[in-house]
User: Fold SHLB2 protein from Calyptomena viridis.
Amino acid sequence: QFTEEKLGQAEKTELDAHFENLLARADCTKNWTEKILRQTEVLLQPNPSARVEEFLYEKLDRKVPSRVTNGELLAQYMTEAANDFGPGTPYGKTLIKVGETQRRLGAAEREFIHSASINFLTPLRNFLEGDWRTISKERRILQNRRLDLDACKARLKKAKAAEAKAAVTL
Assistant:
């Protein structure tokens, strides 16, 4: 039935226009959700190899090891440099102040990444891995049922045509 429809040799039962619109909206929602999810992951973790590592940890149901943010690393360097120059020197005091601020910024960045992952990315993943799979499964079932219906309609039409032909020849 599917092949005959594609070749234009069989009639296809059209679905309700409102339902077709819902299917189109569902496809659009899925596509945009995937794009937004990928781009947010890139924003939160610009390093592709780190993203792959996090993905593998996630798929293996293991805890992702925490990473030092760039701000925290810079703070660490500044503190070490301040200790090298001497905390009593003007440069050392400045490095300690700026290093402490960078440490707080790095901690805020880490908290933001964690919060965004839980509160933003998780619902998007849940939609794609849960709801979308259900939608796709139901769509396939509907398509198969429609093909079965069209095949039955075609057989009925052929049977009626054969019956009419037999009645004419008698």
